[in-house]
Amino acid sequence: MEEFGFKISKSTRIDLDSACQSLYNQIASKVPDIRTCINCGSCSASCTAATFRRTSFRGAILHINRGFDKKAVEFLKSCMLCGKCFLVCPRGIDTRNIILEIIRSEEG
Ligand code: SF4
Ligand code: SF4
Questions:
Q1: Which ligand 1 atom is nearest residue 40's CA?
Q2: Domain spans of the chain?
Q3: Per-residue pLDDT tens digits for 56-103
Q4: Which ligand 2 atom sits closest to the C-alpha of 46?
Q5: Which residues fall within 8 angstroms of residue 33, CB to CB, at 6 or more apart?
Q6: What residue ranges in the chain does DSSP mark as E strands?
Q7: For domain 20-107, is the CATH number 1.10.10.60?
Q8: Residue ranges lining ligand 1, Cβ < 6 Å
Q9: Which residue of 1, 35, 42, 56 is 20 to 30 Å from 9, comparing CA positions?
């Protein structure tokens, strides 16, 4: 519908009730820490790779929680497994183990 020179944008609403969380639940069964993430962003703020490429552990977790598994992998493509995110995480989440699980899921 176009009236008055503008149109209504397509909805970007995410229906969390129908989101596929199979990868999230699969990782949570191996690394239950993932459920304690509070999305504070400390991991992303201190990420070594984020200086050069779009890399975010927090972003990856949010995306697999919403069922966007491929996007989550993209957020970790440049990860060097340096472990800095693990050092700064206030919840002590084993980030590297989770990163490896996400990358492995892409490999099939
Ligand atoms: S630092 Fe830890 S709690 Fe904060 S967003 Fe990252 S993984 Fe989650
Ligand atoms: S392990 Fe990966 S995501 Fe974590 S700080 Fe290092 S490069 Fe960033």
A1: 4
A2: 20-107
A3: 999 999 999 999 999 999 999 999 999 999 999 999 999 999 999 999
A4: 5
A5: 91, 92, 93, 94, 98
A6: 2-3, 6-7
A7: no
A8: 37-43, 57-58, 89-91, 93, 95
A9: 56
